[in-house]
């Protein structure tokens, strides 16, 4: 039983686990109170935020775990690049050793799995434990728009556009703050959002979607529906390959493995073996040896990049989010921002080519 499974048993007050409910409920209340007080200090001006003359687009969520934030970040990057901007993603490089600011490379141990994945796809990515310094570094080196990865709770930065990804399957983390639930802050914090993107909207039933949208409308902000799909498949070297055939053996260590599995089933795959690891899991040599013996392994891009060169002949689908209306909303908020031609960019930001994996 992993930590999230235990947490769910406590929330549902199952068996002996209900004894932990009062303790975790108390911790949850303390956490919510601390975050609410922190937000008050920023809102009242006691704590200052960094703002830039150039636009910053924050992509985040209000819960811990997977909400489709990574493919949403990629989609925004690609749409900005497509219309002529020079975007850069600024990431903390979770679980990576690099303090930065530095340009990310495909090295998960140094830069973290998400930033390494962005870099492998030739998305210009800056890793910095201090995100303000990362933003300054990106602008100094040629970016004219920054996408701040996981930036909603990062109150040290005032973004021009604050986008919140909402997972329709568990949008509000069981209704409790951490550690009992998954909320990173009280729900009233959603009032800071400039818009909401309901990810995986094509995978959820209409009634659930309507109920969620009804609540989000109370914040009087635009709501966009994003459909998630597999655009193509890659192998362990991140070369495009044909989709797997027959029964598959699935393993992954991501924030929301259930939705990944659900998409595979909806595509008609029969899952023979399923191995779920913790989010951002670092695979041991013993686990790698076991995974090598799988007949038809399938995993996620985030897992695949950590296993690159390890001899596991796995395939991974490349996810894309299509958020209808979001492009127009973003571009309308970027009017007046000068587009920089690629050939005019010097130094580290000169691309070897165009971004890959566009699908």
The helical percent reads 25-40%
CATH class of the largest domain reads: Alpha Beta
Order of helices and strands: HHEHEEHHEHEEEHEEEHEHEHEH
| Average pLDDT rating | 91
Distance between the termini: 37 Å
Count up the domains: 3
GO molecular function, one term: lipid-A 4'-kinase activity
Keywords: ATP-binding, Kinase, Lipid A biosynthesis, Lipid biosynthesis, Lipid metabolism, Membrane, Nucleotide-binding, Transferase, Transmembrane, Transmembrane helix
Family: Belongs to the LpxK family.
EC number: 2.7.1.130
Describe the protein in words.
The structure is a single chain. The protein folds into 3 domains: 3-43, no CATH class; 56-227 and 322-342, 3-Layer(aba) Sandwich (Rossmann fold); 244-314, no CATH class. 31% of the residues lie in helices and 18% in strands. Mean pLDDT is 91; it is low at 342-354. It is globular. With 359 residues, it is an alpha/beta fold. The relative contact order is 0.16.
What's the SSE blueprint?
Elements: H1 3-11, H2 21-43, E1 56-60, H3 69-82, E2 87-91, E3 102-103, H4 108-111, H5 113-120, E4 125-127, H6 131-140, E5 145-149, E6 161-166, E7 195-198, H7 206-216, E8 223-234, E9 240-241, E10 248-252, H8 257-266, E11 271-276, H9 285-292, E12 297-298, H10 301-306, E13 316-323, H11 326-333
